[in-house]
Structure formats: C-alpha cells, structure tokens
Amino acid sequence: MKKYSVFAVAREAMRHHTGWTRAWRDAAPKKRYDVVIVGAGGHGLATAYYLGKNFGITNVAVIEKGWLGGGNTGRNTTIIRSNYLQDPSAAIYEKSLSLYETMSQDLNYNVMFSPRGVIMLAQTEHEVRGYKRTAHANMLQGVTTEFIGPEKVKELVPIINLSGPRYPVLGGLWQARGGTARHDAVAWGYARACSDMGMDIIQKCEVTGVQTSGGKVTGVQTTRGDIACDKVGMVVAGHSGHLADLAGFRLPIESVALQALVSEPIKPCMDVVVMANTVHGYMSQSDKGEMVIGGGTDGYNNYTQRGSFHHIEETVRALIETFPMVSRLKMLRQWGGIVDVTGDRSPILSKTPVDGIFINCGWGTGGFKAIPGSGWAMAELMAKGRSPLIDAFGLERFTEGRFIDESVAAGVAH
Amino acid sequence: MLIVSCPCCGVTAEETEFHAHGEAHITRHTVGSSDDDMETYLFMRKNPKGVHFERWRHQYGCGKWFLMARDTVTLEVFGTYPAQTTEPPADLLELIDAKRPGWREGA
Which of A169, A199, A321, B54 is the most exposed, fewest CB within 10 Å of its CB? Predict the structure, then answer.
C-alpha cells in the first residue's frame, strides 16, 4: 500500500497522477479462511481491521452480496455522537467517538471527520427532563455533553425558528465533540487497511447457506462457491434475521425501512448537526452544501430500501416549522435503508447458539456512529471469546430481561 | 402507499388512516411459562422477507383491530381479515399460494 501524504500528492502532481494505485484489491474467494466476515459495510470491515490490527488474525475474508459499503453504510446521514443514557451504550459509543477522532491518521485515509457539534432539540417538557437526565448520566460516565437553553441554541443555529407553532424549542442536549464523517470514506479506509494486511474483500458474493458440523460452524455456501472457515462474523444489519435463519437460530429483530433525503447544494448556513426527535427530523449541511435530512422509520416491517412517502411528508413538514428557509429548497434525492431494530433499541454483539458464529446487529437507526467501537469490540469477541466493552449486549439479555433500554431516550432518530 | 380495506367497517383507504402493530398470530405466554417461551412471546419475531401476517388497527376510522397479509418486499397487500381467529383464512392462503409459490418454506 502506498502511503497517502502531502508528498505523495506533490509527487503525483509532477507526473500527471499516473502513479496512484487501487486503494484495495477486489479479491476472488479462496477455499478456506480462518475467519469469514459476512457483510462489507462499516461494521464488518471495522471488525476485520481490528482482528488484524489488535489480534494479528489476517487470514480473513470479508464477503458482501452487493458492493463495498453499498448498504446502510452508504445510506445513513453520517451523524456521530456518544451522549447515550445507559452506561453500556455510553461506553461503546464513547469508545467509537474516540476512535473516530484519530481514524484518518490510523487508517492513513481522510474520513473527513468533522467534530462540528450535535444538538438534540428538546421540544416538549418531557424531552427537557429526559435530556437533563441524560446530561447528568453522561457527567457520571465521563462523556462530555451539556444541556443548553434556547438562546444558546439560537446562537449555534441562526436559521432555527425557536417559537414553532406546535413544538417551540425549549433547549437542547449539546455535544460539541459530536459531528459527522464521510461514510464512504470510512468503508474505503477500512477496506484499504484490511486489503493491505492481506485480507480478501469479496464483492457480489451472497451467502446462501451456513455449513455446520456437530453444532460448530465449518463454512459458508455462497453464490461464488463454498468457503470453509473456523469462525463466522455476521454483520449484515437489516438482513441479520434472514442470515440467522440460514444458520438455524432466531434473532429478536424486526427490519424496517429508514429513509433520508438530500437537498440541492446551497451556501454554508448551518455548521452543526441538529436533531429533532419529537417531530422526526434531523439535518446537517454536507461539505458540498447539500442539506442532509434524515426522517423516521416506517411503521411496519419491510425490506424495500425506499420507505413510505408519507414519512417524508411528515419529516419535511416538521423541518419547515423548525427551519422556515427549508421551504425554498429543492430536494435532489431520497432513499431508504433497511435497519434492524431490537426490542430495547440496543444492538446485539454476541455469541450465538452455533459455536463459531458471532453476530453483530440490531444497531437500528444509529449504527454509523458506532462503526469503529463496534468493530473493535466484535474483533475482541471473535478473537478471545469475550469483550468487556460489550458484555451487556449479549443475546441472552432478552431471556433474562436485562435490557439496555435506549428506546425511551432515542426511540426515533439516534 | 398501501391501500387497505378494513374488514370491520368496509372502508378502503390509504395507509395513513391505519396503524400497524406488528406480527399476528403470536402465542401469548404468561405467568408460569418458561424463560424461553416468554422471550419468544415478547421479542422473537419471524421478520420474513416475503409474506407477513400482521395486526393492524383502523386508527382514524372505526378504531377496530384486524389482521392483514402483506409482502414485506413488494408491499403488496394480499388481503385483510377479522382479528378473531388464530390462523389466516383458507381462501387467503390459497390466494397467496397462487401468487407466491413456495412461500411457506420461508415462513
């Protein structure tokens, strides 16, 4: 792998950019690997990366039914924050945020991490109390965040309308260290580092079956042939239930479409991320100038990757109340992704009933921000059989009734 | 946008008039049941990629509950039927068999 640096840019400029090589190898499957990761999205690639970096396991294949980062990794609204209510969530999201802070240097790939700050608007008395509670919890957890009043919100977001007709802005939960990153770059940066360690990234390779022997996994069947392995990591978000079904176990997961849309590019007008959970809308401005808008999830199970039209209407209606200038914008694109939602709105990182199969799913509507932390912990789980960071996120919590209840704190956008 | 017919009041309307409430035909386990049964009742869902039976309510209409068969990939509504039953009606199953041969293997 050639290192990217200012000198590399200068050198290539001198020779008409003829020396750049491919960032990563698009490999064909071998017969056997130590570890197969299913899903070449952010979480899967991060898992592979930390398996190699932290544990020296590099005989790894990352297989993907579509293309690299083409699922939810390329469909989210790229928001990163760590101010969660419950201790286990705050711990893993904080780990993740701290890894994002140094990711560009670690990967030698510019992921455009932009710690511009994230505000979650409080628009009802209930939300004010909820966010104050989160701010207090975060103080005990050592996560920097604060509850701010409406004047400070207006100062940070001049285009906001504080006195909306339905839900006036009463304050907000503000995390100055939060922000955004370029989601494709996160996938590509990890892919480049994985490929450099000798791992194979195999696209257009759909898993069609899981081979087991005596309760232990021995390999996977794919559309590009059988691949033998000792361990399998399933990291496939919305299709987790489908894959678990192939392996013969069940997951407490339901899949729904979550959608987003993006406007035409305009001049810089908002340099923070604003989330409004009461009215189901959140918005940030990309480096290109587009307003990136996230909406709510559909009300019923589906795998359509487009989302219901009336949810867009609800999102846009709410945004126009909060940001009146949005009413003049044209929208360029709209899309959906399939998110995997658990009963307590917290993820599952766990061993499974099949020996050698590990699952990382259930991130629901908030997976992007967790990518590095999730990969870090999942790699430890797969290499050593346990990761202290995610002890609380096991599958057994649903039998034991030991939930990590984020559904109250972030039941909508998070 | 789904077009839904309410079997209770007979009105056919857009989905915004209704509200979905998750999988239908779930066996209710309660006091005295095993941990596994309780987990199944509370959290384990079929979540199929294809034919799904689910509970709906005519939220902004007659207010009554009913059941629906729908495809989670194409969003086709196969039909609706009254909630007072433990399994889908035979004629609806026949219709689904005709439209989605082999769907029962994935269910």
Answer: B54
**How many A-B residue pairs are in contact by the CB < 8 A criterion?**
58
By the 10 Å C-beta count (0-12 exposed, 13-18 middle, 19+ buried), A56 is classed as: exposed
Query: Shortest Cα distance from B107 to chain A (angstroms)?
Result: 10
Would the CB atoms of A302 and B73 count as touching at under 8 Å?
yes
- Are residues A254 and B20, on separate chains, in Cβ contact within 8 Å? no
Rg (CA), chain A: 21
pLDDT at residue A363, as a whole number: 93
Both tokens of residue A125? 């008395």
Q: Are strands A225-234 and A32-38 parallel, antiparallel or unpaired?
A: parallel
The nearest alpha carbon in chain A to B53 belongs to: A301
| CA–CA distance, A268 with A392 (Å, rounded to integer) | 41
What pLDDT is recorded for position A407?
64
Secondary element (H or E) of residue A384 = helix A371-384
Q: Please name the member of A239, A253, A399 whose beta carbon is closest to the beta carbon of B39.
A: A399
Place of tokens 């955004």: A180
- d(Cα A169, Cα A161) in Å, to the nearest integer? 8
Does the beta-carbon distance from B72 to A252 stay under 8 Å? no
Alpha helices, DSSP H, located in A24-176: 42-55, 87-101, 103-107, 125-141, 150-156
What is the token pair recorded at A236? Answer: 């496939």
Structure tokens at A192: 């480049």
Torsion of CA A298, A303, A304, A310, to 10 degrees: -10
Which parts of chain A have pLDDT scores under 70?
407-414
Q: How many residues does the structure list for chain A?
A: 414
The residues, ordered by sequence, that sit 6+ positions from A296 with a Cβ below 8 Å of its Cβ are A258, A280, A281, A311, A314, A315, A412, A413
- A-facing residues of B in 15-54 (CB < 8 A) are 15-16, 19-20, 22-23, 35-36, 38-39, 42-45, 47, 49, 52, 54
| pLDDT attached to residue B107 | 58
CA distance A206 to A211: 14
Q: Which of A250, A251, A310 sits opposite B16 (nearest CB)?
A: A310
pLDDT, position A125? 92
Query: Nearest CA to A189 among A36, A379, A382, A1?
Result: A1
Alpha-carbon span B24 to A277, nearest angstrom? 29
Give counts: helices (H), strands (E), chain B: 3, 6
State the DSSP H helix or E strand holding residue A121, giving kind and residue range, or none if neither.
strand A118-122
